[in-house]
Design a protein that fits this description.
The complex is a heterodimer of chains A (about 475) and B (about 120).
Chain A lengths: L9 H12 L3 H10 L7 H25 L5 H10 L1 H33 L5 H17 L6 H25 L13 H11 L21 H27 L2 H8 L7 H46 L18 H21 L3 H28 L14 H19 L7 H38 L4 H4 L4
Chain B lengths: L3 H16 L2 H6 L5 E7 L5 E7 L2 E7 L7 E5 L1 H9 L4 H6 L4 E3 L2 H14 L4
Parallel strand pairs in B: 1-4
Antiparallel strand pairs in B: 1-2, 2-3, 4-5
Helix pairs in contact in B: 1-3
The chains are: A mainly alpha (about 475), B alpha+beta (about 120).
């Protein structure tokens, strides 16, 4: 078998997986999760969330080794539970995950305005959004060596400022092993999960790698890198910043910029601009990749007749799916506007965490079902221990998902939790209505058009 | 099962369709690639060379280092080149396997979306 001219290696798989997950909103999540713990033990919650992500990642890895394709998530669900379930679940998942962009742009804009007060945060958000739209329209993707340099610089930078923070407090941590109540700890882990979202999107690189076995390995290494970096940085922020500052960033009247406060406290002006640069890079890579992947997903769905065909229209110069991009951008504008108007950011974190729980549970169910329905299909990676680990994933994420949407929260977080619950339910109802009430008629129309056409092969007399 | 000659005939028609489409040529003007097609039921291989959006040649056999490798049953590949099936639907069902960058996979699908929008 011939090999591809350009194939991606392990280093880039790790940098892509970890880089997609690292977003500015994560820093706020760390402070929020720490508020649910008694001591300065955020690292335990993050470590737990990381280990759970490894379990979920192994389910993705097994399915990916069976069907190594960028169409991944939809294909896995379709093979296990049929097309209708695949469209509903992947639709809710993609839209749920995109909600992070609203929080991301809002937080980034507020951070930028600390270093450049002359720039109105709203104006920056608009400019940033336009830049991202332009990059996507041109099909410019941060990839390969550029992705490696950016991602590894960010992780090195975060680890370095964390260690320096520890040095500044003489490695004096307050109650680093005290987690408090079990309810609080589970909620902290649930919020910590939002730091790992999108790591699984690395499976979209399945068709680009030198060897498909690189994907599970890269996924696990990316999770390890994320867990270590997050644990260090969250400990550093919660140790260096005062209780008042930590409380302020979580209040609607405060600003969700703990990383900026941390940089400023630690290194003055240099720290401020350093953290702005880090946040900008993190947002640029994660949002750019997120927008591109989701607009390609919508394009593929439209080409598959799962969404209206007009969403598959291509730009006549750049060959990019511009209608799908406009749809994704409008959705992101709506969630960003929601952030600017209401200042409710936690609800977006809860939405993406709930969407993640849902997809991990579904993926684990797919592993179990396909073990029975397609036992002989080749699997380069197979989770050891039969169905024990997938069952653990279902139970653990079921509990955590339940806590996110229904568990006890602080009084000031109740409204965020309700918004998240109704948003997810709304998406599910809409997707189900679409699949059962709209899709059959639309497909029938497309099928009739296609069938009315005499196959060209027969017309030319080749068949 | 489609023979090698049938696939070559389909490829010749595909080349004509692509090269005569002005919109497609403009859209793909910066796309220079070598594509390998593999029919896994017959073992036949084909090489398509694209230069600046124009299909320069279709050859039998796997020549050169490919940027993209597309695998499928011979019938599927043949029908795909005739424009009688939707490649995205085949791809999403796992009946066509593609190795290459997401950008290239998108470009290949774009070709069929432009020349046969009704499929």
């Amino acid at each position: 078998m011939t090999e591809l001219r350009r194939a991606v290696g392990l280093r880039t798989v790790v940098s892509t997986g970890a880089g997609m997950a690292l977003a500015t909103v994560t820093y706020l999540s760390f402070i929020e999760l720490a508020s649910y713990l008694a001591g300065n033990s955020s690292w335990i919650a993050i470590l737990t969330a990381g280990i759970m992500a490894v379990l979920a990642g192994s389910c993705f890895a097994e399915l990916n080794s069976m069907f190594p394709t960028a169409a991944g998530i939809k294909l896995f669900i379709e093979k296990a539970f049929g097309e209708k379930a695949a469209i509903i679940i992947s639709g809710v998942y993609v839209l749920g995950q995109l909600s992070i962009i609203g929080a991301e742009i809002y937080i980034l804009s507020q951070g930028i305005s600390q270093g450049f007060p002359q720039i109105n945060p709203l104006l920056f958000a608009v400019i940033f959004g336009l830049i991202l739209f332009y990059l996507n329209l041109r099909g410019i993707k941060i990839a390969g060596t550029t992705q490696d340099i950016i991602a590894y610089s960010m992780f090195f930078g975060l680890i370095a400022v964390s260690v320096y923070g520890f040095y500044r407090i003489d490695f004096n941590f307050i109650n680093p092993f005290e987690i408090g109540s079990l309810d609080g700890f589970i909620q902290a882990v649930a919020i910590g999960m939002s730091g790992f979202i999108a790591f699984e999107w690395v499976i979209t690189m399945s068709e680009e790698v030198t060897n498909v076995k690189i994907i599970p390995k890269g996924m696990m290494l990316a999770l390890g890198l994320l867990t270590v970096t997050y644990a260090l940085f969250s400990m550093a922020m919660t140790s260096v910043l005062s209780k008042e500052e930590l409380g302020w960033v979580l209040k609607p009247e405060g600003l969700p910029i703990p990383h900026i406060l941390y940089g400023k406290r630690l290194l003055g002006s240099f720290g401020l601009y350093f953290m702005i640069a880090m946040a900008l890079l993190a947002s640029l890579t994660s949002i750019n990749a997120g927008l591109m992947t989701s607009s390609r997903f919508i394009y593929a769905m439209a080409r598959d007749w799962s969404l209206p065909k007009f969403m598959a229209r291509l730009h006549s110069t750049y060959a990019t799916p511009w209608v799908a991009m406009v749809v994704v951008t409008l959705y992101c504008v709506a969630v960003t506007a929601f952030g600017f108007i209401t200042h409710y950011i936690l609800c977006m974190i809860l939405i993406i965490a709930a969407a993640e729980c849902m997809i991990y549970i579904v993926i684990a169910l797919c592993v179990i079902r396909l073990r029975y329905t397609e036992p002989d299909r080749e699997r380069d990676f197979k989770i050891k221990g039969g169905i024990v680990f997938p069952v653990i994933v279902i139970i653990v994420y079921g509990i955590v998902g339940g806590f996110i949407l229904f568990g006890p929260v602080k009084p000031q977080d109740v409204l965020d939790q309700k918004i998240a619950l109704f948003f997810i339910l709304g998406l599910l109802v809409l997707a189900t209505f679409y699949v059962f009430a709209v899709l059959p008629g639309m497909r029938e129309k497309y099928r009739k058009t296609a069938e009315a056409r005499i196959p060209r092969r027969r017309r030319k007399g080749s068949a | 099962m489609a023979t090698s000659d049938e696939i070559m005939e389909a490829l010749a028609d595909f080349k004509e369709q692509c090269n005569s489409n002005k919109r497609l040529r403009r859209m793909q003007r910066d796309w220079t690639k070598v594509l390998h097609y593999v029919a896994f039921d017959t073992g036949d291989k084909f090489t398509m060379t694209v230069k600046e959006g124009e299909i320069i040649s279709n050859e039998s056999g796997a020549a050169g280092t490919p940027d993209v490798i597309i695998e499928g049953e011979s019938e599927t590949l043949c029908n795909m080149f005739w424009g009688d099936i939707n490649p995205t639907q085949m791809y999403l069902k796992g009946e066509i396997k593609v190795k290459g960058t997401q950008e290239d996979i998108m470009r290949i699908d774009a070709i069929t979306a432009i020349i046969w929008p009704e499929v």
